[in-house]
Prior knowledge:
Elements: H1 7-35, H2 38-43, E1 47-58, E2 64-69, E3 84-88, E4 98-104, E5 108-113, E6 126-130, H3 135-147, H4 151-157, H5 182-193, E7 197-201, H6 208-221, E8 226-230, H7 233-245, E9 250-252, H8 268-273, H9 276-295, H10 303-306, H11 311-320, H12 329-366, E10 369-373, E11 387-392, H13 400-407, E12 410-417, H14 438-445, E13 451-453, E14 456-457, H15 462-472, E15 478-479, H16 481-484, H17 505-508, E16 514-518, E17 524-525, E18 534-535, H18 536-551, E19 559-562, H19 566-575, E20 582-584, H20 586-589, E21 594-600, H21 616-623, E22 626-634, H22 636-639, H23 643-651
Parallel strand pairs: 7-12, 7-13, 8-10, 8-11, 9-10, 11-12, 14-15, 16-22, 19-20, 19-21, 21-22
Antiparallel strand pairs: 1-2, 1-6, 2-5, 3-4, 3-6, 4-5, 17-18
The structure holds adenosine-5'-triphosphate.
Amino acid sequence: MNRFTNIDQYKNFFERLIQLERKSEMEFHLNEIMLLSAPQREAKGRAILNLSGKDSGTGIGGVYLVKLVRGSGLPDNEISNGDVVIISKDKPSGKEEQATVVSKTKRSITIAYNKTPPYLVYGRNLRLDLYSNDITFQRMLDAIEDLKRLPILQEYIKSNIDLFEENENTKNHSFQQQNLNSKQQEIINQALVTNDIFLIHGPPGTGKTTTLSYLIKSLFEGGKKVLVTAPSNTAVDNILEKLQNLEIPSTRIGNPIRMDENLLNLSLDVQLQDHPDYQQANGIWNAIQVLKKEQNEYIPASGQNRRGLSDNKIIQLASSKKPYRGIQSAKLRKMAKWIKIQQQINKNYEQAQALQLSAIESILEQSPVICATNSSAGSELLKDIIFDVVCIDEATQSTEPEALIPLVKGRKWVLAGDHQQLPPTVKSSEASDLSISLFERFQKELPANRSNILTIQYRMHQEIMRFSNENFYQKKLKAHPSVAKHSLADLPGFDPFPYVNPALEKVVQSSPAVVFVPCEQGVEEQLADSHSWFNKAEIALTKEITDALLSSRLFPEDIGIISPYDQQVSRLKSDLKDYHVEIKSIDGFQGREKEVIIISLVRSNLKEDIGFLRDYRRLNVALTRAKRKLIIIGSPFTLQSNPIYKSLIKKISNP
Ligand SMILES: Nc1ncnc2c1ncn2[C@@H]1O[C@H](COP(=O)(O)OP(=O)(O)OP(=O)(O)O)[C@@H](O)[C@H]1O
């Protein structure tokens, strides 16, 4: 645990770690760009060559769209919507302007620039490279810098315990909500009366996000302005959905491409479409396009054409209808016309920008609750807004500097999390100190009245929660009676499919709630130069089980498939694309739940190597997503080399 006696010490400590992480991420992509030839990087799916670019107008929020086309079709690649990319002619240097992928077809990929795109992107023989996003690192550094102008936050960072006075009597505030249990209500009361910071702790399914959303409702009703963040887009959508159900007016900022489409109506970009100022700005953008077309009929007043003459001089000479320094008078007139149109374009541009900005400001000012990822809380859009309260969900998954990005924007902080679930992702081994979240640090250092723990869970059948409860929560977790024995049989229409492979019979029965399906014939495989694994036999088994579950009249949205390995996730997504079930990594499922979860553990080798499955927090998250049925597929031989997995397999019944 690190103690800091002054803010400069704190700043130096974290700045070093951030720089190490940043270096690690950039190095990965730049190294690969340097080491591999362009075709090799393309073969890995992280570059696309031989593209031709053309202007594709502007998109939501006034971004500049560029469509990159390859007539022969795009090669197989891992670049998807929302990824940050760079465009170059030859080998990129890393200094290129960054753009975001907006859409992809078989032959084209459209990207968006926030600023005017570099001229080169409208050429031929272009190369597109997947790149890392540097912005989050910059925002972390800015947040640490901001601490300097917020003296009270500096004291919190030092966890100066003397500063934390006793709270006033929580009984004075009597928050009551019949949908919540007494502990959840008590927590809301405590968080409401605390003037500085409160931590909501709780094992999976105990209602941390639910409690946080009711707290936000209460804050909103009390006229407070609240910033709500989480480390990932999925986690932000998860709490936003709850806020929407509670009818709390909220605005979600961030790239709409990365948001749940059912929540898009709450995004800033969609709300903007209805704003009169924004509509007026759109009219002006269209007028600019018309002017640009008209301008093409004249001669651009480029450096070469104008031969050192100023705009005014060209206009003046054009009206005199005489040649000047060897420039024909017709050419002067055409340049003058071009300049006048350009002046009109510039005027219109400024007007459209100002209208757009005023529309954005008015929406953000009027919205009582603003939701964003931790990183996008550092966006320019929120630069001048101070919030009464900042709430971070899944706070144990954020590094301390990442959590500071939203926290420096508020007067009071509420953090929800569970340090037995996924920790922050830290790439650089030298920066491992970042893996202790601010939540974890505060929980150890703050007085007891600044946190409280939830222990009744409302998600899992008691058998599903048993393993995690015994191994990670000292048996303190209780299943609420409404879920303790709930099963697939209670779901309307559920009818176990009779023609299933006899080896999988228990898999489609409502009982037992947890099954382990051995897949000893599976072989783990790795692509050259990839650290991720896949297992074809487990994919086939997952497909068969999903088929059986769907034939038992479960809906696709009831089923979730989880695998710890990205390669397995992407292969499952492609092989099971017609099933429309949600398939994600463990990280992608943190904070979420489904009636049935299938986990494909992938690792199967004679060396008894289970790789990063060893991280028990990852296992804990995977095991606690299912409500009524948990199906685990894996190789008993390989997994049993690890005591935790050995006891897991022993405790659950084989089908
Ligand atoms: N008081 C309650 N009564 C009934 N259901 C509840 C209550 N509190 C929470 N739930 C339900 O329990 C489930 C889990 O809640 P929630 O997602 O808020 O838990 P969590 O602690 O945030 O979970 P995780 O640790 O996985 O992020 C949800 O289906 C939620 O609607």
